Fold this sequence. Notes:
Blueprint: H1 2-43, H2 46-58, H3 62-75, H4 80-131, E1 133-137, E2 142-146, E3 159-166, E4 169-180, E5 186-193, E6 196-200, E7 208-213, E8 216-224, H5 227-239, E9 243-249, E10 252-256, H6 259-276
Antiparallel strand pairs: 1-2, 2-3, 3-4, 4-8, 5-6, 5-9, 7-8, 9-10
Helix pairs in contact: 2-3, 2-4, 3-4, 4-6, 5-6
Amino acid sequence: xxxxxxxxxxxxxxxxxxxxxxxxxxxxxxxxxxxxxxxxxxxxxxxxxxxxxxxxxxxxxxxxxxxxxxxxxxxxxxxxxxxxxxxxxxxxxxxxxxxxxxxxxxxxxxxxxxxxxxxxxxxxxxxxxxxxxxxxxxxxxxxxxxxxxxxxxxxxxxxxxxxxxxxxxxxxxxxxxxxxxxxxxxxxxxxxxxxxxxxxxxxxxxxxxxxxxxxxxxxxxxxxxxxxxxxxxxxxxxxxxxxxxxxxxxxxxxxxxxxxxxxxxxxxxxxxxxxxxxxx
Length: 280
């Protein structure tokens, strides 16, 4: 019994000694590995490290350049390559700071231009709105805004848009009319500029009107403008070189819009935007 106990104690002691020895060997091995790695760094020639640093500078890789500069500082502190690598890093850092400053200045300048354009746009819209002829119907509570260049009578051959406003709601209407000695009995209406055409939807029975007197006839429509129509009208008056209207049915009539018609549509659209954006 005593002999078995001593064997167990002896075995345990040997195991403890083995663990301690293994730990010491492992620690020593790690130190050897660290020294070997450090020695390898010392063996790397400074000119090779600097060449890598120069390539990193050319590629604007400041992270790698800083790492190589630190290696030269640690392993070759008195070398000329270390000083040259430091110069490259400082130069790249200065370039980075300059580029960042230029980027910030460019963004600031672009924002200033946008703000100026927005402000000019507001002034343009308000100027156009103030030009419009304004009338108020106190029975319906509607205020009408129409172009200042002409009055669009139904017995005329014209195209125009105008604004209706009631409380906080505003809307656009489009009026197209024909006047002449002969009926055209139009069933379709179009606006066109430079080959781009939009058909104006309307009800032939609810929105189409006609009249005659003294040997003359006139036909017209007065319809609400949709958002798609607004976009087309804006492009038409701002980009169009040849703007036309066409009324087509049993017969057909096409004419080029006058400069006053185009200016009138443009001003009304700008005034409409001013009202929509709450500039009043």
